[in-house]
Amino acid sequence: MHIVLGTSGTSFDDVLAVARHGAPVELSEPALAAMAAARRVIDGLAARPEPVYGVSTGFGALAVRHIGPDLRARLQRNIVRSHAAGMGPRVEREVVRALLFLRLKTIASGHTGVRPEVARAMAALLNAGITPVVHEYGSLGCSGDLAPLSHCALTLLGEGEAEGPDGVVRPAAELLAAHGIAPVELREKEGLALLNGTDGMLGMLVLACADLGRLFTSADITAALTLEALLGTDRVLAPELHALRPHPGQAASAANMRRVLAGSGLTGHHQDEAPRVQDAYSVRCAPQVAGAGRDTLVHARSVAERELAAAVDNPVVVDGRVESNGNFHGAPVGYVLDFLAIAAADLASITERRTDRLLDRNRSHGLPPFLAHDAGVDSGLMIAQYTQAAVVGELKRLAVPASVDSIPSSAMQEDHVSMGWAAARKLRAAVDGLTRVIAVELYAATRALELRDGLGAQGLWPGPAARAVIGAARAAGVGGPGEDRFLAPDLAAAEAFVGGGALIAAAESATGPLA
């Protein structure tokens, strides 16, 4: 896949292709022409005696000082150096590539005044597989993701450190030279334009949307497997019931569960061994909870799509003039990042409740305690549920919104900030946690279904989708019933099975495409 950047933004697929799959990037001729035209406006303003923010002034609270032509190259270089002040662990490669690509997207819009040669250098950096070292802390989500973007800009200058395509961190100057990329010498406004955007939090939103789309489908599958293992009824999934409350996500989740349960001989038999008028909420309300998360994801994607079409910078070149603005504020992105973390936490919470039901002999309708081989001698999945519960607890903490906080900065010039970067970082942790929680339900539900094997004598077998998932999971190293063993490798295999999309692929081999 080859990504060509124009003046009108980019797409989800383009960001994922560059960030995760190393797709090459090039700039279209219209984009190069637009950048050149905007640069002429900046050059014209730079030649005038009147101060223009970002062109011939200092930055932030220091914007009151007029900077003469002889100091402007130093000014732009200094803002990059001084703002590259990140601390903490390194940010993941895919996030940095998304951040760099999205900044290039805005520059290609022709509204920043950055020269085409700087944009070409950014594209060359991406295409060479050079990833600047960016740190966890350094963005308040307003005036852009300042420190993260500054570390990227520093690499363009041939300073600081970056990771090469071989995964080894080296001095940036060494990596640029090895790939034939000349360090950039910045001119008026260019240093500011390279670091004044919400690209980091947007990149993480795009990546999270892709991951959560997969996880919502995975949760529908594991919820259906649990319903089947508990001998529950699929009548609550009937389309006419969900039409009474017409949330699109709810209908999609219910439809997924129906398709996974099609052909099952286990559903609807809960009356055989004890009166059970209705299944518990964690089973019966699975489509309502997962569906609400799906609808939240649709909203988040709509915000991301608007941002992908945006040109976030300050000041911006518009109709031949330069104007200050506040478009760099991260509130729109920060809100949906927090919203998704709430949805992820609640989906994890209901998933854990279903798992616990499978393990409790008083509520599992005939399954052995903790799905153990010889309960008492064997503990079965007792502590796997502890691990799952610990992750759910962490997800609840991660659901506390970051965007309701604000710490004034820059001598009170930047007196309200979005904390969108922090919201994005905790959402990434929440996505990882939700993957683990769903993996534990998968592990428990598939084991429970195999422990129902005795019902086969009555002609009661799991459905085709369940059998396909069990077979694929076992082939992937997710162990089945038996005596106690070292569980961590099984759980790791289950996590990889869910996170890599193999669970969905296995189910779809029987159901066809799921929503």
Secondary structure blueprint with pairings:
Elements lengths: L2 E3 L6 H10 L3 E3 L1 H18 L25 H12 L3 E4 L2 H16 L7 H12 L3 E2 L2 E3 L8 H11 L4 E3 L5 E3 H7 L11 H6 L3 H31 L9 H5 L4 H14 L19 H4 L1 H23 L7 E3 L2 E3 L7 H29 L22 H17 L21 H32 L12 H12 L12 H12 L2 H10 L4
Parallel strand pairs: 1-2
Antiparallel strand pairs: 3-5, 4-6, 6-7, 8-9
What's the short version?
With about 525 residues, the protein is mainly alpha-helical. The chain contains 19 helices and 9 strands. The chain is about 55% helix and about 5% strand.
Protein model, in words:
This protein has helices spanning 12-21, 29-46, 72-83, 93-108, 116-127, 146-156, 172-178, 190-195, 199-229, 239-243, 248-261, 281-284, 286-308, 331-359, 382-398, 420-451, 464-475, 488-499, 502-511, and strands spanning 3-5, 25-27, 87-90, 131-132, 135-137, 161-163, 169-171, 316-318, 321-323. The longest helix has 32 residues, at 420-451. Strands 4-6-7 form a three-stranded antiparallel β-sheet. Strands 1-2 form a two-stranded parallel ribbon. Strands 3-5 form a two-stranded antiparallel sheet. The protein has two domains: 3-197, Fumarase/aspartase (N-terminal domain) (Fumarase C, Chain B, domain 1), CATH 1.10.275; 204-311 and 343-511, Fumarase/aspartase (Central domain) (Fumarase C, Chain A, domain 2), CATH 1.20.200. Helices cover 55% and strands 5% of the residues. By secondary structure, it is mainly α. The chain has 19 helices and nine strands. The two termini are 25 Å apart. The protein is elongated, with a radius of gyration of 27 Å.
